[in-house]
Amino acid sequence: MDQILSLAADNLLSPIILSFALGLAASLARSDLAIPEAVAKAMSIYLLFAIGFKGGVSVSDHGVDGTLLLSLLAGVALSALLPLIGYALLRSMTGLDRLNAAAVAAHYGSISIVTFVAGTSVLDSSGLIYEGYMVAVAAAMEAPAILSALWLISRGGDRTMEADLWREILLNGSIVLLVGSFVIGWVTGPDGLSQIDSFIVAPFKGVLCLFLLDMGIVAGRGLRSGGRLIRPPMIAFGAIMPLIGATFGLGAGLVLGMSTGGTVLFMVLGASASYIAVPAAMRVALPEANPSIYLTLSLGITFPFNLTLGIPLYVAVARTVTGG
Amino acid sequence: MQTHDAKRVEITIEAVMQRRLTQALTEAGVTGYTILPVLGGSGRSGEWSRSGQVSRASGMVQVICIIRPDRLDALLEAAFAVVERHIGVVSVTDCQVMRAERF
């Protein structure tokens, strides 16, 4: 317990978390602090490129073993399974109707790449190594949850998923950039990294701080506008579901024999909830579902939970269980 | 200056539906349209602002078409098929254009 509290305290006082807290506080206090849309977009491109590239370099450096394919399969299975659990939990805990419960559940099967990036940042600070291909696992976990949620809804009706939507989900900019930069890093290896490391390594945490400042502002706005719709059982769900997802991630990491850092990242991926790819898919596929509910839950409750308490908890649990 | 009657159709719709809408309009014979970003607004679905949106999921755009009056019904049918289940506003106003052959 002391280890968890110490890690949580260190994490809470890191520049990354304090930047997020600043954005959140400013937004809740109705400050006009804002990051220009184009700057936020540029920062997200930078972070995705950097994390993908570094993951590819790591794979190039350490080689590929059999766990890569198994990890991808485990990630896809986890993404498809978690919405079913989330749906059952939402229906029993919160009384949300089927449509909104399915839409929320989809977010919890998919992943938040920013939470993943924050997780890798904590691991780097802790000196824990992790498998570079976890970036590819993150990309693979984006979409299956959407299919599960639509299956939950289509059981009782004639709801189908148009082919065009599949193309949009699988080829959305974040996935293309993440996988593309991963491949570039894999192909060019440490030599490629040495050519651009002054751009993608040193400034990384600073850019992440600014990006999380923006995320704090957005989360605060979401809480202000959608907070009235979020009742206490839903808040409880927003904190319990990440723990369930992390437990499944822990199981996957242990079964696959991954490193402590890799297990933590599996836990982070299982625990995180999407707020970019899935909301866009839900607006097209399930427009009747209320975006204020799923965006507020994933961005206003679960994202801050994972960032502040979740990640240190997952690190401590993974360390204890794997002995790392 | 000689001017001609035309209809100006403004469709405010979620950004994620933009491509589907413009595709439907093109298939309905619309030869041109203009797309504008929407900065913010308020309506039945609550208040929102473009600044600070984390994804396109909650953004809005406005698609503006100016067409000959006889093409209005086909356009509205095509547009309605796309916007029916979504947040948005469709409005039609009379306007005048100088070069009728372009619409």
Overall number of domains of chain A: 1
Query: What is the CATH domain class of chain B?
Result: Alpha Beta
Unreliable spans of chain B are none
Give the CATH topology of chain B: Alpha-Beta Plaits
Question: How do the helices and strands follow one another from N- to C-terminus of chain B?
Answer: EHEEEEHE
Q: Strand count, sense and closure of the main sheet of chain A?
A: none
Number of strands of chain B: 6
Number of domains of chain B: 1
**What is the end-to-end distance of chain A?**
16 Å
**What's the rounded overall pLDDT mean of chain B?**
86
Count every beta strand of chain A, where a strand is a DSSP E run of 2 or more residues.
0
Distance between the termini of chain B: 18 Å
Oligomer: heterodimer
Helix content of chain A: over 70%
From the 3D coordinates, which CATH architecture of chain B would you assign?
2-Layer Sandwich
What report would you give on this structure?
The complex is a heterodimer of chains A (about 325) and B (about 100). By secondary structure, chain A is mostly helical. Chain A has helices at about 1-10, 15-30, 35-60, 65-95, 100-110, 115-125, 135-140, 145-155, 165-170, 175-200, 205-225, 230-255, 260-270, 275-285, 290-320. Chain A has one domain (about 1-25, about 35-320): Na+/H+ antiporter like fold, CATH 1.20.1530.20. Chain A contains 15 helices and no strands. Chain B has about 100 residues and is an alpha+beta fold. Chain B has a single domain (about 5-100), classed as Alpha-Beta Plaits. Chain B is about 20% helix and about 40% strand. Chain B contains two helices and six strands. Chain B has a four-stranded antiparallel beta sheet, covered by helices on one side. In chain B, strands 3-4 form a two-stranded antiparallel ribbon. The radius of gyration of chain B is 15 Å and the shape is globular.
